[in-house]
Design goal:
With 188 residues, the protein is an all-alpha fold. Helix 1 packs parallel to helix 3. The longest helix has 22 residues. A two-stranded antiparallel sheet has the order 1-2. The radius of gyration is 23 Å and the shape is elongated.
Length: 188
């Protein structure tokens, strides 16, 4: 669903001022360099939250209603989410409202979302691969003969030595490599 469709689908739950604010929020997110998918995810989370808040208030939600939302209403949303969604999805919902609060803070407007304290998700650590495992992997291969063999060998060494993710390594360009006395790779 496109961002415009998400915003239009909120028409029965929000007033015009809040719709305009959400559109400006999207422009701010774009200015901040967030990807289209991230912005769309934020809008989907906002939509779910706004529908919840509007139903809690029993009316169309105004910008002022959202700015002055009660702490208990916000906690109710998070409690409902905690029962229905994964911890990762809960974290994204929280991140969405924190990002909106940050946007409002640029306008010198404080919201309930600004100062809330949230639980952290436990992130799984990937197991370490020992150096001897990598050395064994490289030694069991035949001597590189083609450019693809050299590329694959270099990619394995790059991944192991830098901790890059596969997609980060694959998307590296020459501009990402800074050659100095202490050469390094810039990963964004």
């Amino acid at each position: 669903m496109s961002q415009t469709k998400i915003i239009k689908s909120l028409a029965e739950h929000i007033d015009k001022a809040l719709e305009t604010d959400i559109i400006e929020f999207v422009k701010w997110l774009e200015y901040k360099g967030l990807s289209v998918n991230t912005i769309t995810s934020y809008l989907n989370d906002m939509k779910q939250g706004i529908i919840f808040f509007a139903n809690s208030e029993g009316k169309k939600l105004s910008l002022a209603d959202l700015i002055h939302l009660s702490h208990s209403t916000y906690v109710s949303l998070l409690a409902t989410y905690a029962q229905q969604k994964s911890l990762k999805t809960q974290e994204r919902m929280i991140a969405t409202w924190k990002k909106w609060a940050k946007y409002k803070n640029t306008q010198k407007i404080d919201t309930i979302f600004s100062n809330a304290i949230y639980p952290k998700c436990q992130h799984k650590l990937l197991p370490n691969i020992e150096l001897n495992t990598i050395e064994t992997l490289l030694s069991t291969q035949d001597a590189p003969q083609t450019w693809q063999d050299y590329r694959n060998r270099a990619l394995i060494i790059l991944l192991y030595s830098t901790g890059l993710r596969i997609n980060e390594a694959i998307n590296l360009t020459w501009q990402d490599i800074v050659l100095t006395t202490n050469s390094y790779i810039k990963v964004l």
